[in-house]
């Protein structure tokens, strides 16, 4: 990240810009930094001005407690102002939920695209699972048991115990523990885990909601529900893709949407 801007509460945000064309700010999901969406940004840069950044509390960006979702929306406002005053937004997973909230708040956003915002309406017991996760995550972070917090999140994503234990022994685990406090931020963004239909109905700009054809059925249904909840929504399915979507497959869909 070679550029910096400052959010309303004084938090320093690290970001970088590449390409030319309509400006798009890319927002990563849980346990990730701007580097996670950088490969997609590199491909979008052929047709768009792609902006990636480290969300507060991650990577090279700062943090200012206490956390509120409104502060992350202010972060996006600061970034948009820094790159010209108007932008489209793209968010993946819980980052998708964040950009939907930002668009509903009235930021100067022309278009919004999301990839599999994980609203749990169509997951059996989804609301109950979210409540249990929230409680256990709070307990783990309050006790500074960062490893346990990471493991809770990995279980929520469907990872088995054997794979979690393997991850604990890997070199990447230390970095995951360092980012563990930000899990509470994404949990706050997701709220009760259910689709905020009233909030989405307030979004006036075009919204593209994309899902992977090989993702779980509940996630595809949630993606479709996002498109149905906004006044100007569109839904697309990328056959063969999972939650870890390939940048080369997603790029043309997003580029056509943002330049259309």
SSE blueprint:
Elements: E1 3-6, E2 12-19, E3 23-27, H1 34-44, E4 49-53, H2 69-82, E5 87-92, H3 94-104, E6 109-115, H4 126-142, H5 146-156, H6 161-168, H7 173-179, H8 183-190, H9 197-200, E7 207-212, H10 217-229, E8 233-238, H11 247-259
Helix pairs in contact: 1-11, 2-3, 3-8, 4-5, 5-7
Q: How would you portray this structure in words?
A:
- The protein has 2 domains: 3-121 and 194-259, Rossmann fold; 126-187, no CATH class.
- With 260 residues, it is an alpha/beta fold.
- The protein has helices spanning 34-44, 69-82, 94-104, 126-142, 146-156, 161-168, 173-179, 183-190, 197-200, 217-229, 247-259, and strands spanning 3-6, 12-19, 23-27, 49-53, 87-92, 109-115, 207-212, 233-238.
| Category from helices, strands and their pairing | alpha/beta
- Beta content comes to 15-25%
- First-to-last CA distance: 29 Å
**Numbering strands along the chain, what is their spatial order in the largest sheet?**
1-2-4-3-5-6-7-8
Shape: globular
Helix content: 40-55%
Number of helices: 11
Mean pLDDT: 95
Q: Tally the structural domains.
A: 2
- CATH topology name of the largest domain, in short, is Rossmann fold
Please report the total strand number as a whole number. Answer: 8
In CATH's first tier, which class of the largest domain applies? Alpha Beta
CATH superfamily of the largest domain: Alpha/Beta hydrolase fold, catalytic domain
| Alpha carbon gyration radius | 17 Å
CATH architecture of the largest domain: 3-Layer(aba) Sandwich
Largest sheet: 8 strands, mixed
Order of helices and strands: EEEHEHEHEHHHHHHEHEH
Stretches with pLDDT under 50, minimum 5 residues: none
């Amino acid at each position: 990240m070679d550029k910096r801007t400052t959010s309303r509460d004084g938090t320093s945000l690290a970001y970088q810009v590449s390409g030319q064309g309509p400006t798009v700010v890319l927002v990563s999901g849980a346990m990730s930094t701007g580097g996670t969406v950088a490969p997609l940004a590199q491909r979008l840069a052929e047709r768009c001005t792609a902006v990636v950044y480290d969300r507060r509390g991650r990577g090279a960006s700062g943090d200012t407690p206490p956390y509120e979702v409104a502060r992350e929306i202010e972060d996006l406002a600061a970034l948009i102002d820094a790159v010209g005053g108007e932008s489209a937004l793209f968010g993946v997973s819980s980052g998708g939920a964040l950009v939907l909230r930002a668009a509903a708040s009235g930021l100067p956003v022309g278009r919004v695209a999301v990839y599999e915002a994980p609203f749990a309406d169509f997951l059996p017991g989804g609301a109950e699972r979210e409540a249990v996760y929230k409680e256990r995550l709070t307990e783990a972070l309050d006790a500074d048991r960062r490893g346990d917090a990471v493991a809770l999140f990995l279980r929520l994503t469907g990872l088995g115990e054997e794979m979690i234990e393997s991850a604990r022994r890997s070199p990447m685990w230390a970095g995951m523990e360092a980012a563990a406090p930000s899990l509470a931020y994404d949990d706050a963004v997701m709220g009760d885990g259910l689709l905020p239909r009233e909030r989405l109905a307030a979004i006036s700009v075009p919204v593209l909601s994309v899902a992977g054809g090989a993702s779980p059925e509940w996630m595809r249904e949630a993606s479709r529900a996002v498109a149905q909840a906004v006044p100007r929504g569109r839904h697309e399915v990328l056959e063969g893709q999972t939650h870890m979507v390939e940048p080369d497959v997603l790029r043309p869909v997003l580029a056509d949407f943002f330049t259309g």
